[in-house]
Amino acid sequence: MTKIRSVAIYGKGGIGKSTTTSNLSAALADMGKRVIQIGCDPKSDSTNNLRGGRSIPTVLDAIRSGKPVELDDIVYEGFGGVLCIEAGGPEPGVGCAGRGIIAAIELLRQKKVFEEYKPDVVLYDVLGDVVCGGFSVPIREGVAEQVYTVTSADFMAIYAANNLFKGIQKYASSGGALFSGIIANSVTLPVQREIIDDFASRTGTTIAEYVPRSDTITRSELLGQTAIEYDPDSTQAEVYRSLARTLLKNEERYVPKPLEAAELKVWAESWSDRLLTKKNDARSGSGSREIASTST
Amino acid sequence: MVFATRDEADSALYEKRIDLSQATCPNREQRANGINIFYGKASDLIEKARSGCLQNHERGFAQSSGCSLNFYLSVRVGTIRDAATIFHAPVGCSSSALGYRELFRGVPVELGRPAEYDLHWMTTNLREKDVVYGAGDKLKKAIYEAQERYNPKAIFILTSCTTGIIGEDIEGAVADVQPHIDARLVPIHCEGVRSRIVQTGYDAFWHAVLKYLVKKPEKKQTDLVNVASMLSYTWQDRLEIQRLLGKIGLRANLIPEFATVEQFQQLSEAAVTAPLCPTYTDYLSRGLEQEYGVPYFLYPSPMGITNTDEWLRQIGKYTGKSDEVEALIEEEHRIWMPKMQAIRSEFDRIAAEKGSKVSVLGSLGQGRLLAQMPFFDELGLVSPAAMSQDYDNLILEELEEVVSRVGDFDLLVNTFQAAEQSHITTKLDPDLTLTCPFQGGAYKRIKGATRIHALRGDPHPWSAQSGYTGAVAYGNFLLQALKSRSFQKTLKEKTKDSYRDWWFKQSNPLYYMKRVV
Ligand code: SF4
C-alpha cells in the first residue's frame, strides 16, 4: 500500500472549511486519486456538496443505534467516487461532542477503514477552534500528518488559526501533526491579502493558496455541488485544482510560532490603525477607494 | 486586605450565607479555603489561615483516596429506608455502597437496626454513548423505574465525575419528571471532580436536603433535637445520644443513617440542631437557621466528660430543660466519674513508671481534632501531634482556642495517606498511635497502636466514643491498646515492613508534596 496522505483542515466556524475541503476532494478525485473525506463537526454537513446537498447518516448515529456497525453504515460515495464519512455529534447542549469525535475516530480505526479502502488521501474537515481534547484528536498522535487552516482576514478567523498553531506546537514533540500552510479564503481586496501575509510571516507559516470569493461557489452550493462538478472550467475550479496539486506535492511540515494573546492583540490593533488611516485617506481622496469598503 | 474589625475578618474567612436558589453548594475550597496537605505547627497553620496565605498543594504521589460520592454519600444515603438512590454514574462509582450494606448488616436487629434492610440501589450505568449523547432520558427512565419498584417517599439522585464533566442537565430532568411521580426527587451534585476536600460531599448533601426535602414547619416540636452524625460515629454512639436525650424527655432526630424521609422533612420543626461533628453539621445547621429559624450550636461535640456536659447544657438552653440537664449531668457523673477516675489513675501510674506522661498520636477528622485533644487531656495523656483528614477555615477559631488551651502541637493534614502518617509515627515515636481505618491499617511497631474509631456499622459497646459511656469505653480502649502488645509482637515477627528504610530517612513526611510557586 502506498503511503496515505492524511491531512486535517481546521478553521473558524463559517469560514468555508467544508467548501474548501469538498472542492479539494472533488479536485483530487478528478485527478484520479482515491479520497476519503471525514467531517469532524457535529453539524455533519462537511460532505453535503459532494452528495447533491444531502446529508448522510453519521458514525455517531451508527454507534447510537446500538446495532453492530458495518462500513456500509458509515461510508458513502459522493462525487467522483469520494468516500464520505461524517463523525456527527450530540444534540446542542447535550453530552460531549469532543468525546464523540474521539469515539468516531476510534471506530474508524477499529473498522480498518483505511486498510479497507486504501485511499491516497484522507481529508479531515474539523470544526473551528480546537475547543477541547476531542477536536484536537486529528492533530494528536499523528492521526493526520499535515494540517492546513482556512482563514480569512477577519480577526476572529485569525484568532482561531493562532489557537490551532498553539495546539500543533503542543503536540509537535509527541508525534502530533505538523503544519503545512494557510489557505487564505475570501481574499478579494489587496489589503486582505496583506493582512494574512503579515500574519503568516509573524507566525513563521506559509500560504498554500489564495482563494477569492466567487459567485460560482454560491451557485454551485445552491445545487449541493462543488465548483469542480458544477462548472469544471471556471476560474474557481482551477483555484481548487491548484490547491489540490499543492497539497499532493507539498512536503513542508513545520511547527508554527503562534503569537501570545497580548502580541496578537497588539498586532490586530496595528492593523486596525492602518486600515483607519487608509480609510481616512480614501475619504480625503488620497487613498485607494477599494479600501473604504473593507471590514476587518 | 485590611479589615476594620475582627468580626469583619472572620466573616471574610468563609461564605456564611447559603444560597438555595443554586443547584448546589460551593465546594469547601471556595467556601472555607479547604486544604488537605500540611505538616507543621498548628500555630503556623492558624497564622497562615488568618493572613489568607494558606495554600493547598498537589501531591506528586498519592496512596489512596475517596471522593465525595463514593466515600461520604453512597454509604449513608443508601440506608434511608423509605427512599431509593440512583447513581447517575458509571457503575463503578456506586460499588462502595454495596460493601456498606454488608457492614450495616452486622448491627443486630435487637440494637435497633431495621430488620428489613435492603438497598434501594440503582445506577444508570453510564457508558461512552451516554457521555457523547448525554443520558437525560436514561435518568428519567431510571427515576420512573425507581418509583415503580420501590414506591419510595424520596429518590436521591447522586451525580458523578462523568455527569459533571459533560454537564448533564440533572435539574432539567428532575423538573420534567417531578410532576408525574409521587416520590420527592432530591438531586445531589457530588461529582468527585468538584472538590479535593471530601467534605464538599457533606455540604452538597445538606444543600439538596435543605432545598428539596425539608418542609416548611407545620408546628414546632419543642422536644426534637436534630443530630447529624458522621460516618465514624458508631451504633453505640447513637444509642448513647438517644439514652441521654431520652432521660430528659427529648427526642433525637438522628440523620442520615436509617432515618426516614419524614425525619428529614421535619428538620425545620426541631428545637435545636446539635453537632456530633461541627464540620459535618455546619452547612445543615446554618441552612436550617437561615431558612426556618432553627437555632444551632457547633461546639462542642459530646466527646469526653467536659464536652458532653457542655453539649447537654447547650441543648438544655434551647429546649428549656436546663434544670433537667443539670440533674442529668449530676446523675451521670455519679455513675461514670469513678470509672473515668480509675482509667486516669492507671494512665498516671504508667506515666509515673516511665517518668513522663503517656503520649498518643491522634489521627482524626478536623471535627475530632477539636474534640479529641481536650479528651486526651482529661485522661492525662499528651499528644505530640494531631492528624486531620483536611482543614478549612470553618474551624479556625476553635482551633485557636484548642491551641490556647492545650498548647501548640504538630499537625499533619492529609487525606488517606498512610505513608505520611507512618512517617511521623516513626519520627515522634509516641507510646500509642491511632490509625484511621480509612487511612491504612496497623503499623509495625512494638509500642501501642490501634484504630482511632470504628465505622458506623460496628455495634460493639467498646467502640463507643460519644457521651459518658463513650468517654469511659474509649478511655478503656486506649488503655487496653497501650498495655496489650501481643498483636504488635506478632505483627512484627510475622510480617514484612510496609515501607523501606529510605522512606523513614526522609526528613519531610510531605516528601511527595509539590510546591506551587
Ligand atoms: S464520582 Fe468520580 S471520583 Fe467518585 S467514584 Fe465516580 S469517577 Fe471516581
From TrEMBL, chain A:
<keyword id="KW-0411">Iron-sulfur</keyword>
<comment type="subunit">
    <text>Homodimer.</text>
</comment>
<keyword id="KW-0560">Oxidoreductase</keyword>
<comment type="function">
    <text>The key enzymatic reactions in nitrogen fixation are catalyzed by the nitrogenase complex, which has 2 components: the iron protein and the molybdenum-iron protein.</text>
</comment>
<feature type="binding site">
    <location>
        <position position="132"/>
    </location>
    <ligand>
        <name>[4Fe-4S] cluster</name>
    </ligand>
</feature>
<keyword id="KW-0013">ADP-ribosylation</keyword>
<dbReference type="GO" id="GO:0046872">
    <property type="term" value="F:metal ion binding"/>
</dbReference>
<feature type="binding site">
    <location>
        <position position="96"/>
    </location>
    <ligand>
        <name>[4Fe-4S] cluster</name>
    </ligand>
</feature>
<dbReference type="InterPro" id="IPR000392">
    <property type="entry name" value="NifH/frxC"/>
</dbReference>
<dbReference type="InterPro" id="IPR027417">
    <property type="entry name" value="P-loop_NTPase"/>
</dbReference>
<feature type="binding site">
    <location>
        <begin position="11"/>
        <end position="18"/>
    </location>
    <ligand>
        <name>ATP</name>
    </ligand>
</feature>
<comment type="similarity">
    <text>Belongs to the NifH/BchL/ChlL family.</text>
</comment>
<keyword id="KW-0535">Nitrogen fixation</keyword>
<dbReference type="InterPro" id="IPR030655">
    <property type="entry name" value="NifH/chlL_CS"/>
</dbReference>
<protein>
    <recommendedName>
        <fullName>Nitrogenase iron protein</fullName>
        <ecNumber>1.18.6.1</ecNumber>
    </recommendedName>
</protein>
<dbReference type="GO" id="GO:0051539">
    <property type="term" value="F:4 iron, 4 sulfur cluster binding"/>
</dbReference>
<keyword id="KW-0067">ATP-binding</keyword>
<dbReference type="GO" id="GO:0016163">
    <property type="term" value="F:nitrogenase activity"/>
</dbReference>
<feature type="modified residue" description="ADP-ribosylarginine; by dinitrogenase reductase ADP-ribosyltransferase">
    <location>
        <position position="99"/>
    </location>
</feature>
<dbReference type="GO" id="GO:0005524">
    <property type="term" value="F:ATP binding"/>
</dbReference>
<dbReference type="Pfam" id="PF00142">
    <property type="entry name" value="Fer4_NifH"/>
</dbReference>
<dbReference type="InterPro" id="IPR005977">
    <property type="entry name" value="Nitrogenase_Fe_NifH"/>
</dbReference>
TrEMBL record, chain B:
<comment type="similarity">
    <text>Belongs to the NifD/NifK/NifE/NifN family.</text>
</comment>
<dbReference type="InterPro" id="IPR000318">
    <property type="entry name" value="Nase_comp1_CS"/>
</dbReference>
<dbReference type="InterPro" id="IPR049939">
    <property type="entry name" value="NifE-like"/>
</dbReference>
<protein>
    <submittedName>
        <fullName>Nitrogenase molybdenum-iron protein alpha chain</fullName>
    </submittedName>
</protein>
<dbReference type="GO" id="GO:0016163">
    <property type="term" value="F:nitrogenase activity"/>
</dbReference>
<dbReference type="Pfam" id="PF00148">
    <property type="entry name" value="Oxidored_nitro"/>
</dbReference>
<dbReference type="InterPro" id="IPR000510">
    <property type="entry name" value="Nase/OxRdtase_comp1"/>
</dbReference>
<feature type="domain" description="Nitrogenase/oxidoreductase component 1">
    <location>
        <begin position="77"/>
        <end position="435"/>
    </location>
</feature>
<keyword id="KW-0535">Nitrogen fixation</keyword>
